[in-house]
Design goal:
Blueprint lengths: L2 H23 L7 H15 L3 E2 L6 E2 L5 E5 L25 H4 L15 E5 H8 L26 H7 L5 E8 L11 E7 L8 E2 L10 E6 L6 H4 L4 E3 H14 L7 E2 L1 H5 L4 E3 L1 H5 L2 E3 L3 H6 L19 E6 L9 H22 L51 H9 L7 H7 L1
Parallel strand pairs: 5-8, 6-13, 7-10, 8-12
Antiparallel strand pairs: 1-2, 3-4, 5-6, 9-11
Length: 421
């Protein structure tokens, strides 16, 4: 027997003996109860705080992952922008030592004694004499959401977006037999192959069923008259949001507001096409059994005021990889032909022409800088902080860009995550 095999057998014997010893000593006595609780309490409370990096804007909880520097520290110069760089909003922090040097920071990263909090990564970069790639000053500024874009309903946001990267299937559930307003919402997001950005807005409410489908689950059919308040669109809110975007959002410079369409709207109207397209599933038990999940909102109440909170419970890829695209096209054309024939019988003058457009390129998230900022204007009110920017000394990977947004102190970038993944 060689030396190597002898060593292996010896090590196995030692490991086996250690295992037997652990078995004999099991269960091991717990630590002193008060000490164990004190350790749990202090560990929990040490993480029960939000700490924001002033440089990149990410939010964290562990003090050990952050450093503090004085607002007058010379190293903060790497977070400044040149005088000739146009920032479309007032980024002043209220601290003279910072504003005087045109330094862009997240105001939540300032402590009460005029010190600046930095994550370890950004702190290491500026101390080594370079601007962090993740910093807001690296053309990653977003800006605060204005009043015109605040409190838009989910339908109103869809009407002003230039692109729709995901379609949604919304499930509304009857929770009580006494009230249709006792709802719990679930949303399935469906990635879309978008080929162009819209330059004439707002989108017609009649087009909402193209990007949203609502499914009602319950033994009885939904009483649509009682659901109308959850499918309303405010004319003035949509108009004000679009006017603001056309003035301030860099992706909306070529957008034309359809004044004729808006003038035909009522001050508060109902998306009747979407409401009328509601599907009804009497017994959702089979669907529920096929997937698991939980909701964070319990709306088991007699009535609910305001916008319905939707919880994402699944993501589907509907690029029809199992079906030939030629078959899909032929089926669509056949269906269009049947509709045209029926229309012609009712109106002989009516004629429908199918235009075949070739060479349309699908928008690509890796190559199109406006891919996300045009689809989510309420998240990017100025159209800045694009994932692609020629001014970046080093481009951030798309996954890194998304992670920074998800960790951002505003915590509002979840739709982008689902649009990608």
């Amino acid at each position: 027997m060689n030396i190597v095999n002898s060593f292996r057998i010896s090590q196995l014997d030692v490991d086996f003996e250690n295992l037997l010893r652990k078995q004999r000593n099991w269960p091991t006595p717990l630590a002193h109860g008060p000490d164990l609780y004190a350790d749990f309490y202090h560990t929990t409370h040490s993480l029960a705080q939000n700490i924001v990096c002033a440089s990149c804007g990410i939010i964290g909880h562990d003090v050990a992952c952050f450093q503090s520097v004085c607002a007058t520290d010379h190293c903060l110069r790497f977070l400044s922008v040149a005088d000739d760089v146009y920032v479309p909003y007032d980024f002043s922090s209220g601290v003279d030592a910072i504003d005087r040097r045109h330094i862009i920071i997240d105001k939540q990263g300032l402590s009460g004694d005029d010190t600046v909090v930095l994550c370890n990564s950004c702190h290491k970069s500026i101390k080594s004499g370079r601007r962090p790639h993740e910093s807001l000053a690296n053309f990653r500024w977003v800006g605060a959401q204005p009043d015109e874009l605040r409190d838009l309903t989910w339908l109103e946001e869809l009407l002003i977006a230039r692109a729709h990267l995901v379609a949604r299937i919304v499930r509304l559930e009857e929770r009580k037999t006494s009230s249709y307003f006792a709802l719990k919402g679930h949303t399935v997001l469906l990635p879309q192959d978008t080929t162009r950005l819209l330059d004439l807005l707002p989108m017609s409410p009649s087009s909402l069923p193209d990007v949203v489908r609502v499914v009602w689950t319950g033994k009885s059919a939904p009483e649509k008259a009682r659901l109308r308040s959850h499918f309303t669109v405010r004319k003035q809110k949509v108009y004000d949001a679009l006017k603001w975007l056309c003035r301030h959002h860099e992706d909306y410079r070529q957008v034309t507001i359809d004044e004729e369409r808006i003038s035909a709207w009522e001050s508060t109207m109902v998306a009747t096409e979407l409401l009328d397209s509601i599907a009804h599933v009497a017994d959702p038990s089979a669907e529920d059994a096929s997937r698991s999940g939980f909701a964070t909102e319990d709306l088991d109440v007699e009535s609910f005021e305001g916008d319905i909170p939707f919880n994402v419970s699944g993501i589907l890829d509907i690029n029809n990889v199992t079906q030939s695209p030629d078959v899909i096209t032929l089926e669509t054309l056949a269906d269009s032909k049947r509709q045209a024939q029926n229309q012609t019988r009712r109106d002989p003058v009516m004629d429908i022409t199918v235009n075949v457009v070739t060479g349309s390129n699908i928008l690509n998230d890796y190559r199109d800088p406006t891919y996300f900022t045009s689809a989510f204007p309420t998240l990017f009110p100025y159209g800045t902080s694009k994932h692609i920017d020629s001014r970046h000394p080093k481009e951030l990977q798309l996954s890194t860009w998304v992670q920074l947004l998800l960790k951002h102190s505003s915590r509002c970038a979840n739709p982008i995550y689902y649009a990608i993944y």
